What we know:
Strand content: 5-15%
Mean pLDDT: 94
Low-confidence stretches: 193-203
Number of helices: 7
Amino acid sequence: MNISDFVQQAFANHMATAEATAKSMPEPLARWVSACTTSITNGGKILFLGNGGSAADAQHLATELVVRYKDDRAPIAAIALTTDTSMITAAGNDIGYDNVFARQVAALAKVGDVVVGISTSGNSENVVRAMTAAAEVGAVRVALTGEGGGKLAKNSDILLAVPDKVTARIQEMHILLGHLLCEALEQELELVTMPQKIGGGSA
């Protein structure tokens, strides 16, 4: 393997996907930001879910919103439904892994909340079922997927489908889109700046 060629090709592929994504995302991203702004303003919350790398993205984005992205500010209500091992293993054992997220959505989501399902294929059954559960409670359904959107294309209110079929490239765009959401929300919500840091710990 020629590492130099390998790196150059990977970056070329990444940039090509980024350019295509930039062209296709302004409208759905604006709708996502608007839905989240409305939800938070009205006392709602944002719930994130996904499997594997998408689960990591769910946790990453929920943390950015609750703690901070760029600015010290009031917290934004967000939950990752991927972190409670007791919940996930109980649901997986008792009602099946396909229902681990739908059960949590049914229990925690309410009208006006935003449920964000992340799946590079758009076909992860537990994500699809979570979106169905979100519709039943009156939450706004946002799907982050890959090219075409898979099953989530018809089971979401806002679809952000990265125009690529390569999982790694799609995941790279998902976290970028998530970061754009975080930054936009900090600006749109005009949250009160925290006067001082809470606690005395450090990372």
